[in-house]
Specification:
4-stranded parallel β-sheet
Length: 325
């Protein structure tokens, strides 16, 4: 399954000395927030194979579902600009407006700067049905559409995080001569986590992947990750009996997707003050809050090593400016 080139190589793996000194365990951060068009982020790994598939199918117009502060939409539009493809964002409100400029700031502003074509729909409209309507209009206009799976979380997309797992194994091995005890990641549509889980399982590593849900509050996300992990393993190692090693925690979502939490805001401030790195209120801030809680409750020990996946989303900080006043 070949890829289009959206990334310039492996993202960096950095030790966080000040955060580690404060919390106890040795904490590293995988910088998937850096590099790539459209502002960077974890979706670019997923899009490398997905967009390659679109191009193989002669598509010239990429269609994605999202909201006005969507990292996935921003990254897709940026990739489309880079590759000379058209893109359409089918958009509806998924996050309550946090301030008067919420839908004009952050990712919404970057989408505007890239001259993204946005098709607004009602909050109650079904994303898939509306994307299919847009696709029919694209065909009528003489172009060929390709609908991007939600969050890029199908087999093609999740294989991007199999790549990431292999990068971490190589990078961490050269640093510590072993694999990390834990990988910690925010989990939304499930593809990032599934790829990581499958990657470490296939390589027979003892590393446990801990995902902190930022979208689903129930077993839905565990089922998504379990099924997609199994699909990845089957595609790479057919007829194997590989066991996945992961934990999914849904206790840090807060009131809803995109709603800020006090623990998330505290985690964002902590990393900014100690390391000069910026997490976001929707994804990475909540996952870091979960990690801090696990360390404080001794679920993660002081002699453990952790790699935190920075999935990007820094533009979201600007959209949520008032919550940090």
């Amino acid at each position: 399954m070949h890829k289009v080139k959206l990334l310039n190589g492996a993202s960096s793996l950095e030790f966080l000395p000040n955060l580690s000194a404060k919390l106890g365990p040795k904490i590293f951060i995988k910088r998937d927030d850096e590099g790539g068009r459209g502002g960077g982020g974890n979706k670019l790994r997923k899009y490398e194979r997905i967009i390659a598939d679109a191009i193989d199918k002669k598509a010239d117009t990429l269609i994605i579902a999202g909201h006005y502060q969507s990292n996935a939409a921003r990254e897709l539009v940026g990739a489309a600009c880079q590759l000379g493809l058209k893109s359409i964002v089918v958009c509806k409100d998924m996050i309550p407006e946090q301030n008067p400029t919420f839908n004009q700031n952050g990712n919404a502003l970057l989408l505007k700067l890239m001259n993204a074509k946005i098709v607004p729909i009602s909050t109650h409209d079904d994303f898939q049905a509306e994307m299919e309507k847009v696709a029919k209009d694209v065909i009528k206009s003489g172009h060929l559409p390709y609908i991007i799976p939600f969050g890029g979380s199908n087999l093609l997309g999740a294989l991007g995080y199999l790549d990431c797992a292999n990068e971490i194994i190589e990078q961490f091995g050269s640093i510590a001569g072993k694999s990390p005890d834990y990988i910690v990641t925010p989990t939304g549509s499930g593809g990032t986590m599934a790829g990581l889980v499958a990657g470490f399982a296939i390589e027979n590593m003892s590393t446990k992947v801990i995902g902190f849900s930022v979208l689903h509050k129930d077993e839905t996300i565990k089922n998504i990750v379990t099924n997609l992990t199994a699909e990845i393993i089957t595609s790479v190692k057919p007829n194997s009996n590989i066991e996945a090693n992961f934990e999914l925690d849904t206790n840090f979502v807060g009131d809803a997707y995109g709603a800020t939490t006090e623990s998330g805001k505290k985690a964002i401030r902590m990393l900014a003050e100690l390391e000069g790195l910026f997490l976001c209120p929707v994804y990475t801030g909540k996952a870091m809050a979960g990690l801090i809680d696990y360390i404080e409750k001794n679920k993660v020990k002081n002699d453990d090593t952790i790699v935190f996946i920075h999935t990007g989303g820094m533009p979201l900080v600007h959209a949520y400016y008032n919550t940090f006043e």
